[in-house]
Every structure is written in C-alpha cells, then in structure tokens.
C-alpha cells in the first residue's frame, strides 16, 4: 500500500537542543511497518543524542551542511555527501554548525 504526504503537513516536535524532529513514517501512519523515518532540522548550536535501541539498526543521510558525530573522544566530521549506518545499541552525540539536518531512519525488530 502506498501512502502520500508532504513533509510540510507534518508538525515538528522539539528534539535535543535547538533541533526539531518530524516523524514522517510511524507505526500509526503505516501499520505494521518496521521502518521509522524522521526528518530532523538543526538550528545554530544544535546538539542531539542519537541512540539506536538494541535489536534495531539506523541510518541517517546529511542533506546539506556539515556536522560532527561524537562518540566518546572520537569526532567524525560529516558533510552532505555522508550516509551513516548506525548499529544496534549505538549511542553518539551529533554537534553541527548551523545547517539543515539529516533524514534519520530506523529499522526495528518489532
């Protein structure tokens, strides 16, 4: 079954510091889905915590701009050419300069 919606029709909620998240694909919108899809918008000074539950994998794609993905003491600079796969039980902090945010997707075992 295909669904159609415009991201501008979906409200955003606060996410981390100076960021907003739109939940585009949800279990409520697409029953029995195993893929959840969020659009994250980052404002200047945004800091978000990316945590992947055990039993899930996630990925995000930078749409434009640059950011830093920090895990422990390890920083990775990311740009619009990056697509990142995050394994189960992964946790990191994303600290961007001012830029639009990524699209973030998660596959669950539910």
Tell me about this structure:
This protein has about 110 residues and is mostly beta strands. Helices cover about 0% and strands about 55% of the residues. The chain is built from no helices and nine strands. It has strands at about 15, 15-25, 35-50, 55-60, 65-70, 75-80, 85, 90-95, 100-105. Strands 1, 2, 3, 4, 5, 6, 7, 8 and 9 form a nine-stranded antiparallel β-sheet that branches. A hairpin with a 2-residue loop joins strand 1 and strand 2. The chain is globular, with a radius of gyration of 14 Å. About 20% of the residues are buried.
Quick structural overview:
The protein has strands at 13-14, 17-25, 35-51, 57-62, 66-71, 74-79, 83-86, 91-95, 102-107.
What's the arrangement of secondary structure elements?
Blueprint (H helix, E strand, L loop, with lengths): L12 E2 L2 E9 L9 E17 L5 E6 L3 E6 L2 E6 L3 E4 L4 E5 L6 E6 L3
Antiparallel strand pairs: 1-2, 2-3, 3-8, 3-9, 4-7, 4-9, 5-6, 5-8
């Amino acid at each position: 079954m295909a669904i159609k919606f415009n991201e501008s029709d979906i409200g955003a909620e606060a996410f981390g510091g100076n960021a907003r998240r739109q939940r585009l694909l949800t279990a409520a919108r697409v029953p029995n889905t195993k893929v959840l899809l969020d659009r994250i918008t980052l404002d200047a000074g945004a800091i978000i915590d990316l945590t992947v539950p055990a039993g899930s994998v996630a990925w995000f794609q930078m749409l434009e701009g640059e950011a830093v993905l920090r895990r422990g003491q390890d920083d990775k600079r990311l740009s619009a050419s990056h697509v990142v796969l995050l394994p189960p039980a992964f946790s990191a902090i994303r600290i961007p300069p001012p830029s639009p945010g990524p699209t973030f997707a998660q596959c669950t075992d539910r």
